[in-house]
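As a warm-up, study this chain.
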Amino acid sequence: MFSEVCGREGLKLARNAFIATAVALLFFALFIQPIIATSGKNPVSVCQENLMGLGVALTLYCGDYDDVLPSSVINTLNKTWDPDRFSVFASMRDVTPYSKSAYVNSNSVVSWPMLLSAYVKDENVFWCPSDNTRRDVPYAWVSYYWKAAIDAAWFGGPDGTGPICSRRTNFEFPESQIVLYERCGWHRGGQNQGLTDGVVINCLFMDGRVSAVEIQNSGYAKKEVPAGPLPASGVGEPAWFNYSYADNKFSKGQNWNPCFWGDKMREVDIPSAKTKESRDPKITCQSNLLAIGSALRMYMSDWDGALPTSALYNHSSVWNPDDFTAFASLRGVQPSYRSSKTTWPMALNLYLRGLGKSNAIWCPLDDPSDNPSAVVSYYWKAAVDRASFVGAREFDFWYPSAQMVLYERAGWHGNAKNKGLVNGVSINCLYLDGHSAMFKIRDSGYAKKEIPAGPLPISGVGEPAWFNYSYGSNRPQFNVGQNWDVRIWGDKNAN
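Now compare it with the structure written out below.
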């Protein structure tokens, strides 16, 4: 059954999935794993970064299998959900790294860590650092349980009579539907309280974000210590959903249908959950841009090298400054699956959620907002958008290491917040080749009175909205103009 459902993609999808996987794995290896490795003195941070990394691995897995989620369906030929087989799937390390031959030879039952093991660099991400469980045997328990409601949805519910919801896109409330959760409240003194009401646990949500929640509507009894993936009662959180978005009410039941049900629990801050990175706003800002760069690479691989463009905002074939301004600066509706007025944060939102970086559109020194009309921290470059209207794709940019895609809309990190985008202001930028760096403006088109600065200067020309340096002419030179031809022009730092 699994191979029939998951093996229907053609060459194009396989190629795109491979490219997206490579990019995201590179991001994970370079930016997530080093945090894990250097955060050993802070178990809370390591635990949350583990879940973030598992969110990335889950995105990569789904990318390889037509968006289909891992499931215990692999363990049974029956069409009905099996609680016993699910419990093994949800909790055991099993044979990792996974291989078909190792699985067959061990006569084992597949677990979610087996399926995701190919997408992680270090298998320690399966364990919270506060978990002292033995890790070197197949029957070892991992620290994070797969949610029963997610797995049962694969079968059309526990009794198999409902709609089969096997893909991420079947989940209507991804920002409030938990996929993985800690099997113990290690970080708030709940080690001996199982998974009862009031225990605080770290969780990974379907949209890729990680948060700590306080359990309510638990189905576990106090004597269930350690708690298994299913409560003895057979109902309740965190194994099953607890809130009906159709009726706007709580329920302690075997709630699984992702079209109506989700998790509604109080999200809490756990003391010392701040990472080392978050204490340096400049580094966090650059990390945000790197994450956006990874999301952009995935987007381009899915769209044959095409970049997001303001044509998505008003569906016009003619470049329009007003449409561009909205596209380049507004948060828009998120999460967004389809919208008539798409902004760049909306276009990349699905990929950022998969990386666990939904908030990467905000510099830590800016004021984030959930308002669709909010102006995000990074502007899309006008020159890049203008080039897209003549068909420019990723490989049409001749100087990707010197062609900016996104830039900060204010000089937050150089005490120039109130100076707009005039000459001398330093801003963090993302380049098309994926690297992030500080850029000191030298050929600005903005006037000093343009505060806050918009995505387009009143003059209509100059950096950072347009390119400032001709690489393609016989006499390379700076120029303050509406320079956008990506075969000739790029950005050259003032330093």
